[in-house]
Amino acid sequence: MTGSHKKNMIITKSIISVIVWFFGIIMVFPFLWMLSTSFKGMNSVFTFPIEWIPRNPTLKGYKALFDGTVPYVTYFLNSVKVALIAAAGTFFSCTMAGFGYAKVRFKGRDGLFVLKLATTMLPGTVLILPTYMIYSRFGLINTHAALWLGNFLGGTFGVFLMRQAFISLPESMIESAKIDGAGNFNIYWNIAMPNVKSSIATLLFMYFLWTWNDYEKPLLYLWDKAKYTLPMAVKAFSDTQYQNYPAIMASNVLMLLPVMIAFVTCQNFFVESLIGSSVKG
Q1: pLDDT tens digit string along 102-143?
Q2: What radius of gyration, in Å, describes the C-alpha atoms of the chain?
Q3: Which pLDDT tens digit goes with each residue over 43-99?
Q4: pLDDT interval class at 281 (50, 70, 90)
């Protein structure tokens, strides 16, 4: 590699890094404003220039969440319940299906997997009415089961992600276990699963994020306010405190907090899994 070529590469990478950092910082501004506003008084919200660090910080916005006007704690616990059950369903359904498509030989396996992938071409709006009718027949309307039941059926993205992870495992490992008398489930649970921890962490984080932030399903299936999840709670709180911007921002901060904790915990697994799945066959 010539010196001029190396110099051009360094300049190109530097320009790309500056552009990425520039847009990254711009994308962080709304979150910083939301966090800052949650600690402000009503009269300090729209001051210009913006007070990124409030001069007189207050917790009134957060206290308003727990004054009894809106049962915020109940909504938070509802979201935790739904997200955890959905994560459990995602874990078992997607990992088992992914292992089956990757390592279990059966007639029509590849064709069935292609059919599974083809379902991603169906617009979500097309499925709303038939899904609602099915849940209605089974008496699941206005229950939390309508929010997490689908996760036990194996989401296409999750199945694809886990299939790519299991494909990377050497066949010799699987064959050795079969020679020792291990069945498919034993191989799946004791041999395959411990070797794809990064993909499992990514799977759980992605589906936790989608379930936690889901607004459409609670809006469709839940009528009783006591069963609302956090996205609906934020909307309800915004309606009752429509001029209390610090309180509205505080509700959003508390809603984002579990997602941020989960991301910080799983980010290394997340990056490792995405890079690995992009180069596997």
Answers
A1: 988 888 888 999 998 888 888 878 888 899 999 999 999 999
A2: 24
A3: 777 777 777 778 788 888 788 778 766 788 888 899 999 999 999 999 999 999 999
A4: very low
Q: Peptide bond preceding 49: is omega within 30 degrees of 0, i.e. cis?
A: yes
Name the residue among 200, 101, 97 with its Cα closest to residue 153. Answer: 97
Instruction: Compute CA 265 distance to the chain's CA centroid, rounded to the nearest angstrom.
Output: 13
Task: Read off φ and ψ for residue 243, nearest 5 degrees.
Answer: -105, -5
Residues 59 and 39 sit within 8 Å (Cβ to Cβ) = yes
Q: Which of 59, 43, 50 is nearest to 253 (CA)?
A: 59
Residue 71: both structure tokens together: 């049962």
End-to-end CA distance of the chain: 31
Q: Which two three-digit tokens encode residue 82?
A: 């739904």
SS3 for the chain is CCHHHHHHHHHHHHHHHHHHHHHHHHHHHHHHHHHHHCCCCHHHCCCCCCCCCCCCCCCHHHHHHHCCCCCHHHHHHHHHHHHHHHHHHHHHHHHHHHHHHHHCCCCCHHHHHHHHHHHHHCCHHHHHHHHHHHHHHCCCCCCCHHHHHHHHHCCHHHHHHHHHHHHCCCHHHHHHHHHCCCCHHHHHHHHHHHHCHHHHHHHHHHHHHHHHCCCHHHHHHCCCHHHCCHHHHHHHHHHHCCCCHHHHHHHHHHHHHHHHHHHHHHHHHHHHHHHHHHHCC
Best CA proximity match to 234, nearest among 76, 102, 106: 76
What burial class does residue 256 get, using C-beta atoms within 10 Å of its C-beta: 0-12 exposed, 13-18 middle, 19+ buried?
middle
